[in-house]
Design brief:
2 copies of one chain form a homodimer. Chain A is an alpha+beta fold. Helix content of chain A is 39%, strand content 21%. In chain A, the strands form 5 sheets. A 6-stranded mixed sheet of chain A has the order 3-2-1-4-6-5, sandwiched between helices. A 5-stranded antiparallel sheet of chain A has the order 7-8-11-10-9. In chain A, strands 12-16-19-20-21 form a 5-stranded antiparallel sheet, with no helix packed on it. In chain A, strand 10 and strand 11 form a beta hairpin. In chain A, helix 6 packs across helix 8. Chain A is elongated, with a radius of gyration of 30 Å. The interface between A and B is large, with 47 and 47 residues.
């Protein structure tokens, strides 16, 4: 296998030559063989081992084992101990996902601190097929069937073309020792069932299953690539950008052969899960919205507006500003400055008469029933009416902040329009310049 | 299940209402239950049973069984006996494929003769998943993972949303009898292994596997739809049509993100199998070609030319025309007519002096070394040079026929240019008008 592996690296991963490599090592046969192979080929390797403390004493023995291994094979070994269960509970994650997140975050830190070029993991062909079948049992789309990528940023998986059998044979033939992974069966329940009960039957049906599968994966990747091309092209026609908001043209979406399928492809990277609801948004009333972990999709007349969720605020949160404050940075950056003379205001700057203010001032979002006296106009106006006349989208309304006095009267629709009541008067002795920075 | 089924038909197959239906029945539980269900719902059904004679006496007992069933449930039953093995051998097909071809061909005949609106088959959700896994073991692309279509032309599969378990339960609860299919295990080896060894494990992992799977299939179908859209759109830019030949612009193909993937999608319906060879054709010399069962793809400078294969001819086949023949229809339609006067010839019509001809005349394709004396020119010219000057593509050259005399001298490059040597002379007594009809 060493010669085959050498050739495989030269052909498929020539960029690894001469680079600083970090191998993720558990102590299991896959990562141990990966380490031996790169060591034999005289690559510049270091090891990184995570002790997830999930298997008590066994976890510590794994650590001891890989430290010993590193002495013969690599420049150095980094080890870390994670309180995985605690982290998982705190972040409401499964143990498996928690371990993965912790692991990759740490690798990233090591890469940055020690200038590694690539992180190598020991995933192999059987892992790839197992993942395919796990995704089949869980339900998936095409993206779940295109395999583990062999190169993903600086993560490289040089063993993906090799079977578990080849790897174990290599270890056995070369008297390489490894640690059996006796990890918690429950977290690996599905994978173990697939590994031990399904893969053997599939391999009986087709002894070259893994090779066949690798072609299948290639085919599906190519399909995914064509879909990407189509989505890229259609995005240009459907999506426009305004400030930080993406506007999806509903009429154009509805003209596509399968609007629901396109919506999924257009929005999948924004962590939505309720695809039926999103599809229904096309024909729902303005104002309806769907929230993902990270984004908000809002129906606004002929458009779906996509924006990042703003976790710092909610409509009910108010920010108080005490007398003599010079500057606030939350929820937005404003400065307050005493000036001797009023100059001409604009959308970014207003001048107010300090005597007319009542402290503490308040910065808040708009609410139903809000009204103000727009500068330059006679009388008062409902804020909702003002917004409508200005043709603000629902999202823009949501993102607008109001500067109010202690009585909750609007001084400034920030960035848009000042209120008549607090304008600088001829009699004003103290003038405050408020500006968006 | 009857109520669920009734609703399922009303929602998903409303078009079946009031139509003449033909149910394909083997005698197995699936098709027997399908028959009972449609009979209970008072649809207008007839049955069609194929006796493939693959299981000797058992096959005949199946036939007896379904004939009896038809008396209680349907208008009529059509039966047919196939010598499947003989047909399979003759056509070099597997028994399974042979049986399928025979079956669907017969259904088509029945539909046409008896004016059925739809043919119903009893495929169910487990069949669908089994097919997915069979395709996984054999290797496949996306098209192998999008499931059996529930409606495909006039073939309808109303049970695709139901599991084998539901179907068997329905039969058991309603004391419905059926015939166990003890068919030749070898032809069903793979399917049986998947049915009995793999599906049960997957269902242990996920008890709602079939439901999950049906969503997966929907997702993959949607992906396939997007690919189709992309291919349709890109085809407009890449393919032009000239006569019956499709011209694929090589430079434009090479500009695509993944030319190989696109070539597959653009050409998959033409029965090619050697996709690497087709990809290599992009950069190969002019004149190289790849043949499928039905089509020919030829590299010709900046284009790939796709044409139907012409099975009636090959370069070495010649067609003889005896003296006094009035008309030939093969390899192309020509008429030979004695006329008193020469009129003006054109690409479709020539006039020759009969005295100068030597019979039998020959119609053949061109060969290396061919030359002729083009009418209206001095001297002789190599045919290859003539083709080049006329800027004929390789495919057009191949499709050109020559009319020659018994000595193999060219009289007419048919449809293109006559030869000087056989023109009508002032001294000619007998004139023959040769025309393409």
């Amino acid at each position: 296998m060493l010669q085959k592996f050498k050739k495989h690296i030269a052909v498929n991963f020539p960029f690894l030559e001469g680079k600083k490599l970090l191998i993720a090592i558990s102590g299991g046969v896959d990562s141990v063989v990966l380490t031996h192979l790169f060591s034999e080929l005289n690559f510049d390797i270091s090891l990184a081992h995570c002790n997830f403390k999930l298997r008590e004493k066994e976890s510590d023995l794994d650590e001891e084992f890989v430290i010993k291994l590193s002495q013969k094979t690599s420049n150095q070994i980094f080890t870390i101990i994670f309180n995985t269960d605690k982290f998982a509970k705190k972040n409401k994650l499964s143990t498996q996902i928690a371990a993965r997140d912790l692991r990759y975050k740490w690798f990233k830190e090591l890469v940055e601190t020690h200038n590694f070029d690539y992180v190598l993991t020991a995933h192999h062909a059987d892992d790839n097929l197992e993942t395919f079948l796990i995704n089949l049992t869980r339900g998936s789309g095409l993206d779940g069937f295109t395999g583990i990528p062999s190169v993903n940023g600086n993560i490289v998986r040089p063993l993906l073309a090799f079977s578990r059998e080849e790897i174990i044979n290599f270890a056995t033939e070369n008297n390489i020792e490894w640690r059996e992974d006796k990890s918690n069966a429950s977290t690996k329940y599905t994978r173990n069932k697939i590994r031990h009960q399904i893969l053997p039957v599939l391999k009986e049906i087709n002894p070259s299953l893994l090779e066949t599968f690798s072609n299948t994966i290639e085919n599906l990747k190519e399909s995914a690539q064509i879909i990407e091309d189509r989505i890229e092209e259609i995005s240009k026609k459907i999506i426009s950008k305004k400030n930080e908001i993406l506007r999806f043209d509903i009429i154009k979406i509805q003209q596509l052969s399968n609007p629901k399928a396109y919506l999924y492809q257009l929005l999948k990277k924004y962590h939505f899960t309720e695809w039926n609801d999103i599809y229904n948004l096309l024909s729902s009333q303005s104002g309806k919205q769907i929230i993902s972990e990270t984004h908000r999709l809002l129906k606004d007349r002929d458009f779906l507006l996509l924006s990042k969720r703003d976790f710092s605020t909610s409509p009910k949160i108010t920010f108080k500003i005490e007398k003599n404050t010079l500057e606030i940075t939350e929820p937005l950056h404003l400065s307050f400055k005493r000036v001797n003379e009023k100059s001409i205001g604009n959308k970014q700057i207003i001048y107010v008469s300090k005597e007319l203010l009542e402290f503490p001032l308040i910065v808040r979002k708009w609410e139903n029933g809000d009204y103000f006296f727009p500068a330059g106009m006679q009388g008062k106006k409902k804020l909702s009416k003002y917004f409508k006349d200005e043709k603000l989208s629902l999202l823009e309304k949501e993102q607008t902040w109001l500067l109010c006095n202690a009585k909750n009267e609007i001084i400034w629709v920030i960035g848009k329009r000042q209120d008549n009541r607090f304008l600088v008067q001829d009699t004003s002795k103290e003038i405050v310049k408020v500006s968006i920075i």
